[in-house]
Design brief:
Blueprint (H helix, E strand, L loop, with lengths): L8 H4 L2 H9 L5 H19 L2 E4 L1 H16 L11 E5 L26 H8 L3 E6 L33 H8 L5 E5 L6 H7 L2 E4 L20 E5 L2 H11 L17 H7 L6 E5 L9 H16 L3 E5 L7 H16 L20 H12 L2 H14 L5 H22 L4 E5 L15 H5 L6 H6 L2 E9 L6 E8 L4 H13 L13
Parallel strand pairs: 2-3, 2-4, 7-8, 7-9
Antiparallel strand pairs: 1-3, 4-6, 5-6, 5-10, 9-11, 10-11
Helix pairs in contact: 3-4, 8-9, 9-17, 11-13, 11-14
C-alpha cells in the first residue's frame, strides 16, 4: 500500500517558512491549516496518526491569526503554524485518552501548561495523536484504539510511545508536533521516522497537565522535521512554571541561536563505547560512523568515552518506571472519571474498580503495574526499587565524569530501524531493547535529541543520531543537530519515501 506523496508546497514547507509566509501575508493561516486538514483527511485512514481532529477550532485559531495580521498586530514566531498534540496533554474541549480505554470520553476541565503556551503563541492545534497506552511502549501498537503505521513503510511501526506525533510529521500531516519522553518516547520515534525529536532537560518544560506515567522521568518536548523548527517550538513551550514543582526557574537556553549557528569547531564530542557494537543493526552503525566523520570534518574533536553503568540502565529503568506507574495509575479507580464497568447496583465499589481496571487497561499497562507493585512491596523495596535508584545515581555520575571533559556525548538513537508491525508484539524484552540508547539520559535528567542521518543500507529506513548534553545545556543539542543537517545526512526517500 503506497501513501500518496504531498503535492501542495504548503505541506512540505518548514514551520518557520510557513510562519514567515503568514507574517508577510503571502499566504493565510487559514489556507495553511486547511491544507493540513485536507492531508489528514487524505491519508490518515492509512497512517492512523490521529485519535481526534479538531477542525473547527483549528480554523478558528487560524482566522484569529489572519485577523491579527490584518490589524497590524505582532505575530509570534510560529503564529498560524499547525501542530499535532500527543494525547497525553490536557486540552479543554477535546478528549484526552492517553491511548487508553479507561479514559474513553474524558474531557479535561483545564489545559496543560504546554497546551496553553501553544495557544498563547497562536499555534494551530490540529488534533490529538495516537500513542502507546499511558506512554508505555516503543511501537504505538499498545494503544487501546488503533495501531499507527510508519508513513515511510506502512507495514512498519512508527516508534513509541509518541508514534502518532512522529508519523504525523513524516506523513506531512503537520509541520510540528508535541511529545513526551520518559525513556525515549520522543527520540526513538524520531529515529525510525527520519524526523527530529528533542528531550529537554528534566524540569525545563512543564509537566503540569501532562497525565503522569513516571513523574521523575516524564519530559515534554518538541518534534519537527527540521532542527530550527524544533528549536523555535522549544522556546515557545519551555521555561519555568509555578504550577510544576519540578520546574527549573532559569531562562530557556539559547536553542534558536544555536540551531541557526550549527558551529561545532572545537566541540568536544564523546563517543560512548557502551552504546554500539554487538546487537546493533549493521546499517545503523554504518550511518552512525558516517555522521561521526561528518562532525569531525566540521571541526569537532571526537574522543571515545566509557560510561560503564549505562549497561545497567535498562534494568534499573524497568524497576523505577513501573514503580512510579503503579503509584500514578492508582488514581484510575472508576470512581472519579473515565470508564466505569459494573456500576449497576449489584457490585461493591471495590468490584467496580477491579472490573473497570481489568477491562480498561491493556496488557502492557497491567504488566508494568504488576512489576511496579511487586518492586515496591514490603520485603522487596530495598532489593529492587532501592537498588535501582542506586544504579540511577551511578549513571548520573558516569555522565558527570564524562561532561567534566567533554561537551556532548553521542550514540545511535536506537539499535535498529523500524521493525514490522507485530514482529515484537509477543516479546516484551525485544520491545524494551529499542530504548537501550535513550534511557540513560532520562535516568540522569539530562537533555538529549535525535537527528536524522540518512537511510540504512539494510532496509532503506531512517537512522537517528543521538546527542546528549548536560542539564540546561540544551543549546548544544541544536548546535550538533544543525551541523549534521548542514551535511545533508538526513532521510531522503524521494519517490520511494511512501511505500
Amino acid at each position: 500500500m503506497r501513501l500518496p506523496a504531498p503535492t501542495n508546497p504548503l505541506l512540505t514547507s518548514s514551520a518557520t517558512e510557513l510562519a514567515e509566509l503568514i507574517r508577510n501575508g503571502e499566504v493565510s493561516a487559514r489556507e495553511v491549516t486547511e491544507a493540513h486538514l485536507d492531508r489528514i483527511a487524505e491519508v490518515d485512514e492509512q497512517v492512523l496518526a490521529f485519535l481526534s481532529v479538531d477542525a473547527d477550532r483549528a480554523k478558528q485559531t487560524a482566522d484569529r491569526v489572519d485577523a491579527k495580521r490584518r490589524n497590524g498586530e505582532q505575530l509570534g514566531p510560529l503564529a498560524g503554524v499547525p501542530l499535532a498534540l500527543k494525547d497525553i496533554f490536557t486540552y479543554q474541549g477535546m478528549p484526552t485518552t492517553c491511548g487508553s480505554r479507561i479514559l474513553a470520553g474524558w474531557h479535561p476541565p483545564y489545559d496543560s501548561t504546554v497546551t496553553r503556551r501553544l495557544l498563547d503563541a497562536d499555534i494551530v492545534i490540529l488534533g490529538k495523536t495516537n500513542m502507546d497506552e499511558f506512554a508505555m511502549g516503543s511501537s504505538t501498537e499498545n494503544s487501546g484504539y488503533q495501531t499507527t503505521h510508519n508513513p515511510l513503510d506502512l507495514d512498519r511501526i512508527p516508534g513509541g510511545s509518541g508514534g502518532g506525533s512522529a508519523a504525523a510529521l513524516a506523513a506531512y500531516q503537520a509541520p510540528l508536533a508535541m511529545g513526551t519522553d520518559t525513556g525515549g518516547s520522543i527520540r526513538q520515534p524520531a529515529s525510525v521516522t527520519g524526523t527530529v525529536g528533542i528531550k529537554p532537560t528534566y524540569g525545563g518544560t512543564s509537566r503540569y497537565g501532562v497525565v503522569a506515567m513516571a513523574s521523575s522521568l516524564d519530559t515534554p518536548g518538541p518534534c519537527a522535521r527540521s532542527v530550527l523548527d524544533a528549536a523555535v517550538l522549544h522556546e515557545v513551550i519551555g521555561g519555568w512554571d509555578p504550577m510544576d514543582s519540578t520546574s527549573i526557574n532559569e531562562p530557556v537556553p539559547a536553542v534558536v541561536a544555536a540551531a541557526r549557528s550549527g558551529e561545532i569547531k572545537g566541540l568536544r564530542v564523546g563517543v560512548v563505547t557502551e552504546l554500539g557494537g554487538e546487537g546493533y543493526q549493521s546499517g545503523v552503525l554504518a550511518r552512525y560512523q558516517a555522521a561521526l566523520r561528518a562532525l569531525q570534518e566540521q571541526g569537532a574533536e571526537l574522543t571515545e568515552v566509557s560510561c560503564p553503568h549505562f549497561d545497567y540502565a535498562l534494568g534499573a529503568y524497568y524497576l523505577i518506571m513501573p514503580s512510579e506507574v503503579s503509584s500514578n495509575l492508582a488514581r484510575f479507580d472508576a470512581m472519579r472519571y473515565g470508564l466505569r464497568i459494573g456500576d449497576d447496583g449489584t457490585h461493591s465499589a471495590e468490584e467496580v474498580t477491579n472490573l473497570t481496571r481489568g477491562e480498561g487497561f491493556g496488557a502492557e499497562v497491567k504488566r508494568r503495574i504488576i512489576i511496579g507493585t511487586y518492586a515496591l512491596s514490603s520485603g522487596y523495596y530495598d532489593a529492587y526499587y532501592g537498588s535501582a535508584q542506586k544504579v540511577r545515581t551511578l549513571i548520573k555520575r558516569d555522565f558527570d565524569r564524562a561532561f567534566a571533559k567533554l561537551d556532548v556525548l553521542v550514540s545511535p538513537s536506537s539499535p535498529t530501524t523500524a521493525w514490522r508491525i507485530g514482529e515484537r508484539a509477543d516479546d516484551p524484552l525485544a520491545m524494551y531493547k529499542a530504548d537501550l540508547c535513550t534511557i540513560p539520559a532520562n535516568m540522569a535528567g539530562n537533555c538529549a535529541g535525535s537527528f536524522p542521518i540518512g537511510n540504512s543500507s539494510d532496509d532503506g529506513m531512517p537512522v537517528g543520531f543521538q546527542v546528549m548534553a548536560p542539564a540546561m545545556a540544551d543549546d548544544r543539542l541544536y548546535r550538533v543537530g544543525a551541523a549534521l543537517e548542514r551535511t545533508g545526512l538526513r532521510y531522503s526517500g524521494g519517490e520511494d519515501a511512501f511505500r
